[in-house]
TrEMBL record, chain A:
<protein>
    <submittedName>
        <fullName>39S ribosomal protein L13, mitochondrial</fullName>
    </submittedName>
</protein>
<dbReference type="InterPro" id="IPR005822">
    <property type="entry name" value="Ribosomal_uL13"/>
</dbReference>
<comment type="similarity">
    <text>Belongs to the universal ribosomal protein uL13 family.</text>
</comment>
<dbReference type="GO" id="GO:0005840">
    <property type="term" value="C:ribosome"/>
</dbReference>
<dbReference type="Pfam" id="PF00572">
    <property type="entry name" value="Ribosomal_L13"/>
</dbReference>
<dbReference type="InterPro" id="IPR036899">
    <property type="entry name" value="Ribosomal_uL13_sf"/>
</dbReference>
<keyword id="KW-0687">Ribonucleoprotein</keyword>
<keyword id="KW-0689">Ribosomal protein</keyword>
From TrEMBL, chain B:
<dbReference type="InterPro" id="IPR014720">
    <property type="entry name" value="dsRBD_dom"/>
</dbReference>
<keyword id="KW-0694">RNA-binding</keyword>
<keyword id="KW-0496">Mitochondrion</keyword>
<feature type="domain" description="DRBM">
    <location>
        <begin position="228"/>
        <end position="298"/>
    </location>
</feature>
<dbReference type="GO" id="GO:0010468">
    <property type="term" value="P:regulation of gene expression"/>
</dbReference>
<dbReference type="GO" id="GO:0003725">
    <property type="term" value="F:double-stranded RNA binding"/>
</dbReference>
<dbReference type="GO" id="GO:0005840">
    <property type="term" value="C:ribosome"/>
</dbReference>
<protein>
    <recommendedName>
        <fullName>Large ribosomal subunit protein mL44</fullName>
    </recommendedName>
</protein>
<dbReference type="InterPro" id="IPR055189">
    <property type="entry name" value="RM44_endonuclase"/>
</dbReference>
């Protein structure tokens, strides 16, 4: 028992000692057990917690500025209990039918989008209806972009927004989707979309006389 | 009135300020920086120094340390046995060698070392841990109990516990800084010393409170995982005469991305058993089977935590937990009930 230390003493070359001087003197232990090892179940829980969900939002007859608030909530992950500004927990949102958005009041005519090319005389003002005619995805995209705080994360968050003017969504994106965001207001049915027979057979309060001329 | 109050507050504050912050110096003297620079340069030139031995300091009082150790842990060690538990054979050999160098042919020291205490304490600790785990986790298969025991008695864990109850500086041993092995042996010697000073029941409390309680923040599945979850689950369901495991895909998202997530749940006879998530269906299935098993064994996150207030009876008959090959709810009732 007396030569415990001499038994464990292994002569090392000078170079080796110098290279390992720090660990040699600090007497570091093998930390195999002390560092917590994650079990497979815990790893799966972590995977589930940070999984990015793909949401679908149908923009038909929706106010883009109200919708933007809901879309932002999902894009940034604000609806999650693990949310933190420095936590990358945002989801993907796929917006379809952006061509059929409904602006409130006379916004189509009054709302102006400003752009400047940075050259003298390069300023331009585009009305909402003009912009929508040029690119039917831009009004909702800009609504989401302007609805977020201007910071370094904003452009990265925007990458998770996928806007399509109609219901033709590429197959590989459609397969990712697993949730639908509920519409903010019900889509109204227009009279000219109802078949003439149905209109004809609908119960009426008064029957006009045969001679009555409808203008 | 309020102005009076503010005045009084200000006066108190000023008194505090003068008493705490006033040091009688206006700034840092010009000699401080160059002196520190030279000191650091000399330190770097000397290279890394060995760790100083606490017992070589002038204010070291070994008897006081031993007394304090006893009181700190609220234990009732016999002081002689406690000193013996801290004295390793290598220290005695070193002392004898010192006497021989002086010229004494047959050095006779009246110091007792802890060699037999270590052997005794190791057996006792192992016995207590094993029995305690069986009592605290009656649903865990025997394989898991043994793995947990190995984990608790591993050198890293026992050495850490040993350091944390404050043995490091009091150990009388040749090696410095104290090696892990020495720390572990000291802990075992302490257990044996306590068993001799008091009784085995009290010793089991000591082991429970300092060693077994380290399990409280550990996830049992990260220490022991059944190696073939599918087969194990199927075998258990078969033994319980229930329908075989039925895996169903319950959710999936981002299928075409690298962050794809699949959620699979296991059912048997329309009864939910467990749920798992993974980057592929196969991984998720595996996790679901593991989850079902951990729910059965009572070691899931939401299961009742391991109790740390049990009393083990070392003298009672040994009853092992069910091994994985025999594990089923019916057998469990017999074992736990009888």
């Amino acid at each position: 028992m007396g030569n415990v230390s001499s038994k464990n003493f292994v002569p090392r070359s000078r170079k080796f000692v110098r290279r390992n001087q720090k660990s040699f003197f600090q007497h570091k232990h093998d930390r195999k057990y002390l560092t917590s090892i994650m079990s497979a179940v815990k790893r799966a829980q972590q995977w589930a917690t940070f999984a990015r969900t793909w949401h679908l939002f149908d923009a038909t007859w929706q106010n883009p500025f109200d919708s933007a608030q809901v879309i932002i909530k999902h894009l940034m992950g604000l609806h999650k209990p693990i949310y933190h500004p420095m936590n990358d927990c945002g989801d993907h949102v796929v917006v379809m039918n952006s061509r059929d958005i409904a602006l409130p009041g006379d916004e189509w005519r009054k709302r102006v989008y400003f752009h400047h090319t940075t050259y003298p005389g390069g300023a331009s003002w585009t009305l909402a209806w003009e912009l929508h005619n040029k690119n039917p995805t831009l009004v909702i995209k800009k609504a989401v972009y302007n609805g977020m705080d201007g910071n370094l994360q904003r452009r990265h968050t925007m990458q998770r927004l996928h806007v399509f003017p109609d219901d033709k969504i590429p197959e590989e994106i459609l397969k990712n989707i697993s949730n639908q965001i509920r519409y903010l207001r019900p889509v109204p049915t227009r009279l000219d979309h109802i078949s003439p027979e149905e209109v004809e057979n609908y119960p009426k309060i008064v029957d006009y006389p045969k001679q009555y001329i409808l203008r | 009135m309020s102005s009076l109050r503010t005045c009084a507050r200000a006066a108190i504050r000023i008194q505090k300020l003068t008493s705490v912050i006033y040091t009688g110096e206006r700034g840092i003297k010009r000699w401080v920086a160059p002196t520190l620079r030279v000191i650091n340069k000399r330190k770097a030139k000397l290279g890394p120094q060995p760790e100083p031995r606490r017992s070589n300091f002038l204010d070291w009082n070994y008897n006081a340390e031993i007394f304090a150790f006893n009181k700190r842990l609220s234990e009732n060690f016999d002081v002689e046995l406690l000193q013996q538990a801290f004295t390793h054979r290598s220290y005695v050999a070193q002392e004898e060698q010192k006497q021989r160098e002086v010229g004494i042919e047959n050095p006779e020291l009246s110091i007792k070392d802890n060699t037999d205490l270590i052997v005794e304490g190791k057996c006792l600790t192992s016995e207590i841990v094993e029995r305690y785990l069986r009592q605290a986790l009656p649903r865990l298969p025997e394989e898991g109990i043994l793995k947990l025991k190995d984990y608790l008695l591993s050198e890293e864990i026992v050495a850490k516990v040993s350091v944390q109850i404050g043995t490091k500086d009091i150990i009388l041993s040749e090696d410095h800084p104290v090696r892990q092995e020495t720390l572990v042996n000291t802990f075992f010697a302490l257990v044996a010393a306590l068993a001799r000073s008091n009784d085995v029941v009290h010793t089991s409390f000591f082991v429970r409170d300092f060693l077994i309680a380290t399990l409280s923040d550990k996830e049992i599945l990260s220490i022991w995982t059944p190696s073939h979850p599918f087969q194990t689950l199927d075998a258990i369901l078969n033994r319980e005469k229930r329908g075989s495991a039925d895996f169903r895909l319950t959710a999936q998202t981002g299928v075409n991305t690298i962050l794809a997530a699949y959620q699979v749940a296991v059912y048997s006879d329309q009864q939910f058993l467990g749920i798992g998530t993974g980057e592929t269906v196969q991984v998720a299935k595996n996790i679901a089977a593991l989850d079902a098993l951990q729910r059965m064994f009572g070691i899931a996150d939401f299961s009742r935590p391991i109790p740390f207030n049990l009393t083990v009876d070392v003298s009672s008959q040994r009853t092992e937990n069910l091994p994985l090959t025999k594990w089923c709810t019916e057998n469990l009732k017999h074992t736990v009930g009888g």
